[in-house]
Design brief:
Layout: E1 27-30, E2 45-50, E3 59-64, E4 67-76, E5 79-83, E6 92-94, E7 100-110
Antiparallel strand pairs: 1-2, 2-7, 3-4, 3-7, 4-5, 5-6
């Protein structure tokens, strides 16, 4: 969630759709880190609806300057931030110099292994 890992990797596994996977989900990503606790735990899989934009206050998967992150998109005034749910982490400001790409909206999570 907060380590900024490389997202575009060929290391993936196809799984059969299970009842706990939201029907709209396009894919799942295993989370590493505690920045989205208590809602999303280290090792959980987040189920993602692939989108190139999400609304404010939604949790999404992003690529910020080449690093993948699972965060909540917020705005304060006219500035955008990526927020961790774990209060020990600071908001990440998005500036005009940053390259931010939305991968999709997080629909839910489940413990791994699935």
């Amino acid at each position: 969630a907060g380590f900024g890992e490389y997202l575009e990797d060929s290391d993936y596994e196809d799984i059969d759709r299970q009842d706990y996977i939201p029907s709209e989900a396009d894919f799942g990503i295993t989370i590493h880190g505690d920045s989205m606790m208590p809602e999303i735990n280290d090792g959980d899989v987040v189920w993602v609806l692939e989108r190139d934009s999400i609304e404010e206050n939604q949790i999404g998967v992003f690529v910020l300057n080449g690093d993948s992150l699972c965060k909540k998109l917020i705005s304060i005034g006219d500035k955008l931030y990526l927020r961790s749910l774990n209060e020990k982490y600071s908001d990440i400001p998005i500036t005009e110099y940053d390259d931010l790409k939305v991968i999709g909206k997080v629909l839910g999570s489940s413990p791994f292994p699935v």
